[in-house]
Specification:
Elements lengths: L1 H30 L22 H12 L2 E6 L2 E6 L2 H8 L8 E2 L22 H14 L2 H6 L1 H26 L5 E4 H18 L12 H16 L5 H4 L2 H5 L4 H23 L10 H11 L6 H32 L1 H14 L15 H13 L9 E2 L4 E3 L2 E3 L4 E4 L1 H5 L21 H5 L14 H18 E4 L23 E6 L4 H4 L3
Parallel strand pairs: 2-8
Antiparallel strand pairs: 1-2, 3-5, 4-10, 5-8, 6-7, 9-10
Helix pairs in contact: 6-7, 6-18, 7-13, 8-11, 8-13, 11-13, 13-15, 13-18
Length: 511
Amino acid sequence: MAIFVYQSILLSLSVLLFIKLLLSCTKDNKNKKVPPSPPALPVIGHLYLFKKPLHQTLGSISEKYGPAMFLKFGSRPVLVISSRILAEQCFTTNDMAFANRVNLPSVKQATFDYKHIGEANYGPHWRNVRQIANTELLSAQRLHASSDVRVGEVRDMVRRLLHSWNASVDSKGLSYFEKVDLKVKLFELSLNLLMTMIAGKRFYGDNIEDSEEKKMFGDAVREFFILGGASNAEDFMPILKFLGITKATKKLNHLAELNKEMMQKLINEHRKPGDQKNRTMIANMLELQKKNPEKCDDATIVIIAMSLLQAGIDTIFNTTEWAITLLLNNPDVLKKASAEIDTHVGTKRLVEESDMPNLPYLHCIINEVLRLYPGGPLLVPHQSRENVSIGGYEIPQGTMLLVNAYHIHRDPSLWDEPTKFMPERFESGNAEAKKMMIPFGMGRRRCPGEDLAIREVGLILGTFIQCFDWQRIGDELIDTSEDSGLTLPKAVPLEAMYRPRQIMMDVLSTL
């Protein structure tokens, strides 16, 4: 009986304490001016509102609640920004306040305990890996030195496409168009481009042994982006993991181990006597390791290499796939780009990276593609390191920041006909238009691979336009539906028809 009375008193005190805390929190929240938000449900917060793709859902909600919204992903507070002006406040005046990343549980092992360049919190480790990437790998001097590697890979893909067309042309005639799955080809090219620069390793092409190792590594890189987005419910409701509703974390961990083992194997291969890979990124980092082993040990090399792969492959091939899709749906733009290349490069040689400054309309096309379909529609999540004021609202420490670049890039107050593909809006060096875009982020956490990405997309597009005539498979416009993920993939993989341009046959015959 005494035990029952004691338990009853303890329960009553607990209830009173809970009510007091609830009232206290409610009072504190009323005193703080936080951004507006839709009604939230217990435990799950605003997760009930979400449909994929997440950037479109958040954009629709912001139309009702404004350019700054305060949401709850489970118990995690989230600030969603859908305004260019407010994004500037986050990444200029308050750049340091939002310099940290969000440590999402699902990517802990996949990013080697949050040590990837894009996932590391602001501090000594992040400054070290960022500095190595900027100076040793992605500087203008290093990228210029590796230009012929990228040119070689793009031309190898052209040669493979030409070989496929030649295999059918004898029975079809010179006017024949060959069908190609561009999503597959662009993924292969993107992986080859980065792996050749990083490690001198090619995974696709002629005379390459088809191995299970290659397939596993390619799948691991591809699936990271499918599983590693900000919309993974397991990150915000950990109980799902224990209930077995999602196995995303387990799969990501497995992929991380495969990536780590592969990269360490490539590092070891670089150390073999007589194995001269002097122009690879791993070779550059191993040289730095000799001078300063603490700054650039093997673990650091693996982290940086995997950071570049996981940040670069999907974004490059997705952006190029969107670009070709838009060009096929807008043949006048494709014709104008082709004429520019013929005028400034000619038909006696193939496009080089050094030609890019002389192809302004091609750059307009790339800018317009990145406006409509940014590689990261929601910028990589940030987290506030301290209490901060944004747009007159008080944002508490530990709040996750999501900036909806997709919505900003289609804001009718910033852009005329915002959903229309119109590269001409960037003509005449329209610096003001470019300032309104944030496809690579802003501030100190801006993507360090921006220059490399523009070089790769420009070279691929320029070469494909110069070498081939392109057509849609049918009369209908190509489907531009979007799939979900950390990057912005097409829902329907791009297939197209191509044939070599007759005016380029003499040059192509030498490949």
